[in-house]
Amino acid sequence: MLDCAPISRRGSILALFFLALAAAVRAQPPPAQDQPSPSTQAQPLRTLTTLRQAHSLSADEARRSYPIHVQAVVTYFDRYLDKRRIAFFLCDRTGCIYAAVPRDTVWPGRAPLPGTLVDVSGISAPGDFAPIINQARITILGTPGIPRQATPVTLPDLLSGAQDGQWVQIEGVVHAVTETGTNVTLKVYMAGGLVAATTVKRPGVNYQSLVDKWVHMRGNAAPTFNSKRQLTGARLFFPGLETVDAAAPGPLDAFDLPVQPINGLLRFNPRVLWPHRIHIRGAVTLDWPGRTLCIQDATEGLCAEIAQTAPLAPGSLVDVAGFSTLAGFKPTLTDASFRAAASGAVPAPSAVTSSQALLGDFDSQRVRIDGRLISRADGGGYTNLLLSANNLVYRVLIPVELAGSRLATIPIGSTLRVTGICSAQVDPERTLRGYGVTRASSFWILLASPRDVAVLQIPSWWTAGHALHALSASLVITFAVFVWVILLRRRVEQQTRELRQSGERYRHMAHHDALTGLPTRALLHDRLQTAIDRSRRYRKDLALLMLDLDRFKQINDSLGHSGGDRVLCVTAERIAATVRKTDSVARMGGDEFVVLLTDLSGPEQAERIAAKIVAALSVPIRINKLEVPVSVSVGVCTLSDGDSDAEVLLKRVDAAMYRAKARGRSCFHVFTSDMIGHSHNQLQLYAALGHALEHQEFELYYQPLMDCATGELTGFEALLRWNSREFGLVLPGDFITLAEESGLIIPIGEWVLRQACRQIGLLERTLHRSFNLSVNLSPLQLLQDDLTEVVARSLAKNGRPPASLSLEITESNLMRDSRETRELLNRIRATGVQLVLDDFGIGFSTLSYITQFPLDWIKVDQSLVRNCTTDRGSLAVIHAIVEMAHGLGIRVVAEGVESFEQASLLRGEGCDAAQGFYISRPVPAAELPGLVAALDQSNGAHFLAAAPVSAD
Prior knowledge:
The protein is of the alpha+beta class. The strands form seven sheets. It has an eight-stranded mixed β-barrel, surrounded by four helices. Strand 17 (317-326) and strand 18 (331-342) form a beta hairpin. The longest helix has 48 residues, at 464-511. It starts with 8 loop residues before the first helix and ends in an 8-residue tail after the last helix.
């Protein structure tokens, strides 16, 4: 029964309320302990109104979340101890329970400290050990005070688990007090063992004064438990010193007690019912600071675990105070402390044998013993030496931090003399089976320093067993050397073969192309000079063929380097299959090949072989399900009487090859004397191109674009012309390839963009109207990382909106289908600049490419427009392109319109715009105002006068 005696008028009212509540509780039957049947599970759970009902639930019943509503007194409140929730114990007249209150609970007024009457509602739940109130909601009603009466219990009562959470009273002696910033824990020695009692730390309270006092304590019993919710011990939570009654047995300072002899510890004394601190004195025989302290007086030796870390000199006289208890069937002191008394000498060790040490008569005393070292290891913070003597094995220990490195150097098998503290290890089974006398099963030697180990004898290595091992090792080594010699000889032979093969491979690699396997320029030069000498000696004809793939750069840009490499390999295979086995095929570099023809019957035989090569290389090559059309330009040069130099032949055949390209590609051409200066002209043109920008030799011409439906002038396409000081007017077809090969196309392209924006902007300001500007991009410009910024700067400098600029790209750029190209076009398109696909309908792309890129316009190639009036196939292709583009929201421009009939057909097919000579030839910027006036005056007569013509 809890004593809730009134302390005020308000307390009297609350006491009457508790009596009424207890009467109501007795009228309610306890909840069933068995599992509810299926027929009752659907019924609502009844509300539990007493703490005994809630605490008596089984774990399975507690999981059913019974509603709980009680009024009780808070007996413990601790917001620091449990990181999960507030430690909260409640008691009513029937019992006590733990309530789970969240740590972040905000109380509207003061917190419900111990002694507070509260109204609690929540649900049942299994706790860490027993049922608890979960989701507890607390309402403060009053303050009747902490219960004065509690159930006296013993340590076995607490360890049974039956007192979990209940308000109990224990008694015992306080051995130690541990304080943290928020809590205080007392070690209370009860009859049978120690119990930890915890409370919330209060400022200004001297908890250390409770040490060595006999106490009566009231508090809530609580279990200690493991992760499986099994009981492993017991403890107590008490609200404060107001529930502690203490009595001091003697002096507050234990060192003021009389000194007791060590051999008198725990001897029978009927007047001592509870052990209190005792005071002993002796000389230090071993000091492991913060771990163990051993002393010896005139009667006995003793070792105690002491937390003090101040070092003590061996032999110094010290006072030790602590509680006399049992540890390992031996008397010892716990919760002890020491105080240095005086300096002195270390007690002389007793020389003992292993058999004498095993008897236990020298336990905790300083001894000297001999033994043979059989093993050494570090573990558990100690260095362990295992010694053997008289068929007994014992252990020598020293903390790792004191061991140093000396012990690690002692050879196994050495005979040692060890001086240290003998610690007998009691055998519990033999002791309990006997009549009460303790019996040791082994003993340890505790070292104070590595210097206490003396090496008496180091073992000799040369024993009978070692001699047998040495003989076996010699035989093994001899056999291994024999095997090694055999293997080494085979290895040398193998490496010799590999070196010979490697040399042959390196010689082959030095003179053959790594991609195609064909001879290189160096090997061809040697073979050519040899063939020239042989031809003159035996009067046999000789010829050189130089082959260059047409538009290989476009193939490489479209298919990537892997596709280009595949084309080169197939080309090499086809050339080798076309010529004779006695002929030599070499790769000069890039897409250029040379064929050396020897022992010819006449020059016409070289021409026949060149024609066969052109035909063989005109067959498309299949790469990644794509038929790639290829062709080759071939130069032919035969050996004449005046020629004796290989370099001369190579230069002449190179000139013949370039003449074949000039004739339209996919053909061969035989060298003639008028080509001697061609190569030189190419170099001069290349040199002049490098200074064209600097000398302002470039000029822009503009060709108008007209709306097919209205005949209105909508814009201009900028076209580049080169007025060279040295060569005069050079057409784009003659210098654009040189500009791309040299990389000059990048600065030239940027100049075209800036100049076109400036000139069209000036025209717009002059005529007060807007035009769309179309500028061609080279494939190399799409590789610029800053192309988007270059376009933006050109527009901003001339005040032109992005939507007024169209950038024209070719199909080969889209066939790359690379992530970088796609991202670049998306960035350009995002700025508002329009994208135009030029020359659509030729090459080796497909119509599906226009669905994969952000295009605004496509330009139908002029080859289709040129044949649309005479070739129904060309007109059908134009019709398909227009239908597909309009379906995708893309507008169509027809380029190369040259006649009234073409304009009529294209308008009928639905083309959105057109350009060509029928509208106007390209004109320089100075003539643009007059051209605009003329086109405005015609008012679109080019298209409006042309009636639509049906495709049928």
